[in-house]
Amino acid sequence: MSTSPSPLCVCIMAGGKGERFWPASRAARPKQLLPIASARSLIAETAQRNLHVTPAENIFVITTHDQAPDIQKELPELPPHNIIAEPCGKNTAPCIGLISALLAARTPETVLAVVPADHIIPDTARYAQTIRDAAAVAAREHALLTIGIAPRSPETGYGYILAGDALPTTTATAFSRAEQFIEKPPRPRAEELIATGRAFWNAGMFVFRAADMLDAFSRFIPHMHAPLQRVIQTAGSPAQSAAIAALYDAAPAISIDYAVMEKAHNVIVAHGVFAWDDVGSWAAVADHWPHDAEGNATRGDVLVLDSSGCVVQNDGAGITALLGVNGLVVVRTADAVLVCPKNRAQDVKHIVQRLQQNPAWRAFT
């Protein structure tokens, strides 16, 4: 089994709509392009974090045609041709198949880390070390790696990975064989999983050799084999766009977890011990903004009186004032206002869906 060094690349998945962050997040400027936790956008933070993993020329972004121009502006350090537009969004499996094929066309031994554009990971050094350690294991074991996060609480909004036997390693990162994937369990089941001491949150980050992922696609989604091979054959040529379009025509709309990771027998979990947050709703941003003495997290021109535990962002003109309320999310933009209880923040996407159903309101999505 070869242990020679392999090129390490990073692919940032940036095709999401960020509907839970409406009204700040819109179809034309979704969550990953917003400065959610700092002065920089989430995707800019993600790119900077991964510059500690590999040089800019080895960082790629897969996004939509609509978002590609704005992402190029956000990431001027990346070569423009490293920003790749999908013909349409079909979840994470086609995206990962596409980047695996494009990089395998260069060097089949390429090791690839695939990460979302919209997560918050403040511990850059430990994150980068985990990715590099996982890349070494992926190259040595010809395995598909997923990064699991040690759970801090029995969250029901995350998937879980149950780890099996530990993998001998000399790296700073610990590794285990993946035993089972569990999709967003109810709270009692989440508590049971955490009690085992072997459960990790599924962070949606993957590390693998491009050739090994393509082998897995051939095994588990065989009708994608020929279109993927065509992408490899046409990579860098005028025929590449047509090959990518044909690939997406053939591809199912499915996540990489369902399509490959839950079925494969060579999956390894890297134990991620860095701070991590997928910041999935307005309620979650409270952990990353300054708080007042009553636990209110605010941004912009906001006045809060006799209120507690609120998340308030004012991106519009004037001032937003709260009086005598508790546990609310209030977000104001130039053309829309959101008000909801923090415990309903995950449901904001339903507002976007309702707006899309009314032709007179679609402009607000």
Task: Please provide a written account of the structure.
With 365 residues, the protein is of the alpha/beta class. The chain has 2 domains: 8-272, Spore Coat Polysaccharide Biosynthesis Protein SpsA, Chain A (Alpha-Beta Complex); 282-364, no CATH class. The chain is built from 11 helices and 15 strands. It has helices at 42-50, 68-74, 92-106, 124-141, 187-196, 210-220, 225-234, 240-250, 256-261, 282-285, 348-357, and strands at 8-14, 59-64, 83-86, 111-116, 144-149, 160-167, 175-182, 199-209, 267-272, 297-299, 302-305, 311-314, 320-323, 328-332, 337-341. A 5-stranded mixed β-barrel has the order 5-8-6-7-9. A 4-stranded mixed beta sheet has the order 10-12-14-15. It has a two-stranded parallel ribbon with strand order 11-13. Strand 1 (8-14), helix 1 and strand 2 (59-64) form a beta-alpha-beta unit. Helix 3 crosses helix 6, helix 3 (92-106) crosses helix 7 (225-234) and helix 7 packs antiparallel against helix 8 (240-250). The chain is globular and about 60 Å long. The model has no long low-confidence stretch (mean pLDDT 94).
